[in-house]
Write a structure and sequence with these properties.
It is found in: Secreted. With 262 residues, this protein is α+β, with helices and mostly antiparallel strands. It has helices at 2-22, 33-36, 44-121, and strands at 131-135, 140-142, 149-150, 155-160, 164-165, 170-172, 177-188, 193-199, 202-209, 217-228, 233-238, 244-246, 253-261. It is built from 3 helices and 13 strands.
């Protein structure tokens, strides 16, 4: 639009200049009436200069239009990325809420376990007392191993009756009776975590969680009462290609309690 206006404005200049250059000089009395009433607005050089400037303005407008298109594209790309990030943040918030609930449940169970242990410590000395409780205290991941492996809970909290051996991770039943066993675990989600309580090498109960890349970590727990004979061997076995985690917070524990003799 601006180009058309400038060209229209310059047209009289060009026509007048051409006419002036193509006609001989007249005296005032010989100049046609239509030319006597008009004056030259610009010279040829001025017209060329204005046309050059107009071309430059056109180039600048085209460059600005190109930059505007680039900015618009980048803005649309940023809006798309923002939408993706919002969805990821929403998913992470859900995962965090779920992990918080699981951790709270595990801590509650561990608190109940500790309360039971303290109560057993206060039982009359006239009866046989057997109780042990220990954590891995590994300060990191344990596993994965190529074969099923006995976990060695080396951080012993209680070992009344001396039935638990922290060097082997095995509890040897010191007296026949009914026992309660509990085990808890915490692990990162990148690999599966399956733990089994065994009696004399035979699987009894298992806690497990399959590999899940959408969860940063997971927890597991199980418990059972068993009638055992003196000399029975009890331990926790970590399945092949699985792992478990522990640190100074003692997430992963193994506990056994004699309820009564038989």
């Amino acid at each position: 639009m601006r180009v058309s206006v400038i060209l229209i404005a310059l047209l009289p200049c060009l026509l007048s200049s051409v006419y002036a250059e193509s006609k001989p000089r007249y005296g005032k009395q010989n100049v046609p009436a239509d030319l006597q009433q008009s004056t030259l607005v610009c010279s040829v050089d001025q017209c060329i200069y204005l046309m050059t400037e107009d071309a430059k303005l056109k180039e600048k407008l085209e460059a600005m239009d190109s930059r505007l298109n680039q900015v618009t594209y980048r803005l649309k790309t940023a809006e798309t990325q923002l939408g993706v990030l919002k969805q990821e943040n929403k998913d992470l918030s859900k995962e965090l809420t779920s992990l918080g609930s699981r951790l709270k449940s595990a801590e509650q169970k561990q608190g109940e376990q500790q309360a039971q242990i303290e109560a057993l410590k206060k039982l009359p000395s006239g009866r046989t007392n057997v109780v042990f409780s220990a954590s891995l205290r590994s300060f990191g991941n344990v596993g994965p191993f190529k074969t099923e492996t006995t976990l060695k809970y080396s951080n012993v909290f209680t070992n009344v009756g001396k039935g638990y051996d922290s060097n082997t991770g095995t509890f040897t039943v010191p007296v026949s009776g009914v026992y309660l066993f509990m085990f808890y675990n915490h692990a990162l989600g990148a690999k599966a975590t399956y733990l089994t309580l065994t009696r004399n090498g035979q699987r009894v109960v298992t806690t497990g969680h399959h590999r899940n890349t959408f969860e940063s970590s997971h927890n597991g727990a199980n418990a059972i009462t068993l009638q055992l004979m003196k000399g029975d061997k009890m331990c926790i076995r970590l399945w092949a290609e699985n792992w478990v985690f522990d640190d100074d917070k003692n997430y992963t524990t193994f506990t056994g309690i004699l309820l009564f003799t038989v």
